[in-house]
Hints:
Elements: H1 3-42, E1 48-52, H2 61-70, E2 75-79, H3 81-88, E3 93-97, H4 114-130, E4 135-138, H5 148-168, E5 172-176, H6 192-202, E6 207-212, H7 213-219, H8 223-230, E7 234-238, H9 256-265, E8 271-274, H10 283-294
Parallel strand pairs: 1-2, 1-8, 2-3, 4-5, 5-6, 6-7, 7-8
Helix pairs in contact: 4-5, 5-6, 8-9
Amino acid sequence: MSKVDRRKAIKNLSLGIGAIGLGSTVIAQSAAESISNTFQDTLKGNINHSVCRWCYQNIPLDEFARKSKDIGIKAIDLLKPEEWEIVAKQGLSCSLATDTFASITNGFNDQENHSELQTKYQNLISQASSSGIKQVIVFSGNRNGISNAQGLENCAKGLEPLVKHAEKNNVSLIMELLNSKVDHKDYQCDHTPWGVQLVDKIGSDSFKLLYDIYHMQIMEGDIIATINKYNSYITHYHTGGVPGRNEINATQELNYPAIMKAIVANGFTGYVAQEFIPTYDDSLKALKEGITICDV
């Protein structure tokens, strides 16, 4: 074989090996995508799945959004304005907006907070509207000696101008129900009926409740009956295992498939966001398990 022919043969062999390697990579990527698509195809579509960002802070947001999408999640909860575009690039939306000023302890039940909160929330509502985000979270704040009746009046007064601004911008404000027994001592909006009274007092479709199943199991129990009774007041749900706020599987006391069936039966079309703290070494495996449990 001449030197020229030999060099040509080696070159062709190298190209062939490279093509095989490239082909293997493409095949592997296609297989991974196929597995993801197969899982998504098994979802029933009755629940709009979301997840709270703060439970997975150890995973970069763009990676978390991409992998969340692979397991059928449509949106991510509790994102700040600078994070909205990151998830949008991965094909997800922000299902519930927040910002650093939003305080669980210092909320609308204290009139001294109104001026600052109104200024900051008005801007957040406008930002959310411009980005096509439909929901912004608000909090009652801690009691700090304020009676439930006075807290109700103060919240309504402080929220009223913001609700009007939200109406004009096609955005809803939602107040979260939290437990004051274990996680958020002294928080005022800690029972569903109090939140319902506030919704009635404000009287706008742009103000509703975030029903956190974990928190309300601790405070009230009777989850399915409460959902059936007050479903028209609820526009968003959070999950979490009781006790401990970990995975929502058989290690805890709530029957999540039955709860999800009640939510679906009431015609709910909003988001159900996973908000448990994973204990698995593979936190995304725990998240996928939670989505599977809730997909009824």
